[in-house]
């Protein structure tokens, strides 16, 4: 039994407990509340004067797939086999020994999504894991990406669409074909069958789609239509230009993973980047998480990016939810992580001050009840 | 103009309820008790914080422009040595980043030729001498046209030249080229019957120690190499980025450093040791922080500085990193970097404590003029 004693506990459920206590048994939280007397023997972590939050969750990254400190040639996120590659699995490429994981822990990040990139229209299956290496969901989401594609002159098995409309059309026609295949109205070769098997999980609602949108607002319109048309479960990621369609996104009920905050509006391609987007969307009631897109921004800085969202006008509570509660809900793992509640994994961050104050220090991190920092 | 009330961080000391008198672009005096104030403009700063305008000595504002069509370049790609180019000749003062700077409380910037760290590419591209850098106020006034000469060493120029099928292709080769052009410039200076050579001409102020070299460098090995080079030619250097400075701290006691950006991708071998936590090893050195805009957008300079407090710096020290230290490194601490009588009236009024994410810039004053006031646009 481990007891975290004293301090301000931000549970994520709307409750903040002063002079609180968390009891951990078998890696899970068995008590959260005001300090109380304990009879049993316990390892006590004194957190008096500290700020205690759930471990941070990054809903969109490429950690372990693009190694740090090496050149781009060592990246394993984009495979140019063809524009539709649902057969690719992040788990087959993951390097759990990437030192970025240890570094992420120093920033209080305890759970991450990591997966394929945006070069293909359907890129492959991403996973969710703890930063200690434990895999939570081997198949967490199927990555899709809008925007024009380039296959960089490789001999791909099928041609890549080169326009925004071409990408949307390929996605729609693939979904339609898979639906027909599911109803046995269409026969395809074995190679396609392997692909369709994965896509059918999305169409049946067993696997979420993670849809990359970064070029312009018309992609958001197209994707919201597709999501509605096929009734799939999805998050829309990056969402540059999302502020312009805040009402439509709110009405759709589709959650958003914005970011990474703090990237430049460099060149016309990024003219819709605006760090006020997560603020606008959150105020409209959209479920919003933010991402590091690691290695774009090192994962340990997830909380710094949440501070950037505060700078752009959101309050601390809502911004903190964007790296705890909200990403856990979006990834479908809120039953295990994202808040400090009885029965959940004991993933806990103890900081010298509110963790979104940029000058606060992460002093201790527990994952599954184990002190890892 | 008069600014009245609030908490002034000069940043050397904290003065409560100051009255700051500004005349003809300068701060003329600071009092703590002013009975009667008669002035056209009185800014009520009660409950607010007053700090010097922030300074970023290393940006590419106006060079790699925001929202522009692709194609901007900060250096010539056909020639490894171009000391005769000046960044002011290719600087777009209509880059929206100037407005972002003002909204972020940044009042003075160094603008350098060279490269930025782009997403999706493993190696930053740059030639060996990209050219001359300038100093600007963010009200778009040019302060010094030829303020420093930029040089790049290590993996970045090496890779760039290899990709371009140009030479040299090693660290040895890069240093040999630099040595050669400096020796030529010294001979050129002595030669009475010389023919005008714009490249060698550009090196003269460096050799005469009128301006420093700004050295784009990341690794400890390249820092060490360049310290030897600076000694060999008796020139002043400032190290920029200096990612591994903490590994050779003892060699850097009298070399100014423009450090960072401390939050960025650890892309490629040059940046493998990049970590904002290394700030704790930088204590005691003369350094300032940079966004390397557009690498990190200029308006977040103060948040980057806030990270230093978590690594053991005091609030005053953190503020110094983006004010007086930066002014010293630019050789302009007689004019900017602190709120003191005699200095340029470059002042920022904040809604709350510096470095708090919820704190907003309310006023940015450059040369005694309000150039940004919060509220109009939101």
Characterize the structure shown.
The complex is a heterodimer of chains A (373) and B (378). Chain A is globular, with a radius of gyration of 21 Å. Chain A is of the alpha/beta class and 373 residues long. Chain A is built from 9 helices and 18 strands. Chain B has 2 domains: 1-52 and 337-378, Roll (Urease, subunit C, domain 1); 54-336, Metal-dependent hydrolases (TIM Barrel, Alpha-Beta Barrel). Chain B is built from 8 helices and 18 strands. In chain B, the strands form 3 sheets. Chain B has an 8-stranded mixed β-sheet. In chain B, strands 3-2-7-16-17-18 form a 6-stranded mixed β-sheet, with helices on one face. In chain B, helix 3 crosses helix 4 and helix 6 packs antiparallel against helix 7. The longest helix of chain B is centred in the middle third of the chain and has 20 residues, at 171-190. The model of chain B has no long low-confidence stretch (mean pLDDT 95). The A-B interface holds A 68-73, 100, 103, 106, 262-271, 295-298, 301, 304, 307-308, 310-311, 315-316, 352, 356-361 and B 64, 66-70, 72, 96, 116, 118-123, 263-269, 271-277, 293-297, 300, 303, 306-310, 318, 355-358.
Search tags:
heterodimer, A: 373 residues, alpha/beta, Urease, subunit C, domain 1, TIM Barrel, 2 domains, six-stranded mixed beta sheet, 9 helices, 18 strands, 24% helix, 24% strand, B: alpha/beta, eight-stranded mixed beta sheet, 8 helices
What are the secondary-structure elements of chain A, in order, as H or E? EEEEEEEEHEEEHHEHEHEHEHHHEEE
Supply the CATH architecture of the largest domain in chain A.
Answer: Alpha-Beta Barrel
Largest sheet report of chain B:
8 strands, mixed
Spatial strand arrangement across the major sheet of chain A: 8-9-10-11-12-13-14-15
Q: Could you tell me how far the N terminus lies from the C terminus of chain A, measured between alpha carbons in angstroms? A: 18 Å
**How many distinct domains of chain A?**
2
- CATH topology value of the largest domain in chain A: TIM Barrel
Low-confidence stretches of chain B: none
Give the topology string of chain B: H per helix, E per strand: EEEEEEEEHEEEHHHEHEEEHHHEEE
> How much strand of chain B?
15-25%
CATH class of the largest domain in chain B: Alpha Beta
What is the alpha-carbon Rg of chain A in Å?
Answer: 21 Å
The structural domain count of chain B equals 2
Order of strands, main sheet of chain B, comes to 8-9-10-11-12-13-14-15
Query: Number of DSSP strands of chain B?
Result: 18
Largest sheet of chain A: 8 strands, mixed
The helical percent of chain A reads: 10-25%
Q: Can you say what the CATH homologous superfamily of the largest domain in chain A is?
A: Metal-dependent hydrolases
Share in β-strands of chain A? 15-25%
Backbone CA Rg of chain B: 21 Å
